[in-house]
Design a protein that fits this description.
By secondary structure, the protein is of the alpha+beta class. Helix content is 41%, strand content 27%. A three-stranded antiparallel sheet has the order 1-2-3, covered by helices on one side.
């Protein structure tokens, strides 16, 4: 059974993707993540961050960015579902999600964050805080 993710958590994930993977500056206005037009947070447009973790089209732009960052993506679809694998350019597996039936976009976002090291660092920060 997949965990239930709230809309707020989805938008927070979208904002992390925009910042860490897509290299955008994100500001929050009226509890919504927005892309800043430049790196000065005071000068921003009301451009909402794309729905990377719920839209397959937006998730594929994340996949293209992951490739531009030097990773290899392998997406295999068969009767069991979809397998998503991200590897370094030397062929080392970074992350693999198997038998994805639903929420492909969300898995793509998590894989991208793991690839760029964001999720790994967050886990290390949590371990340090507990230790």
């Amino acid at each position: 059974m997949e965990p239930i993710v709230t809309h707020k958590q989805e938008r927070e994930l979208d904002a992390r993707i925009a910042e860490k993977v897509m290299n955008e500056k994100v500001i929050w206005a009226d509890n919504k993540p927005c892309l800043a037009t430049n790196h000065d947070a005071a000068a921003h447009s009301e451009n909402s961050v794309p729905n990377y973790c719920t839209s397959v089209g937006a998730a594929m732009t994340v996949a293209m960015q992951v490739r531009r960052l030097g990773f290899t993506l392998d997406i295999l679809m068969d009767e069991r579902g979809t397998t998503l694998t991200v590897m370094t350019n030397s062929g080392e597996e970074v992350v693999r999600f198997e038998n994805i039936i639903t929420r492909f976009a969300q898995y793509m976002c998590h894989a991208a964050l793991i690839a760029v090291g964001e999720e790994r660092r967050r886990g290390e920060d949590r371990r340090r805080a507990r230790g």
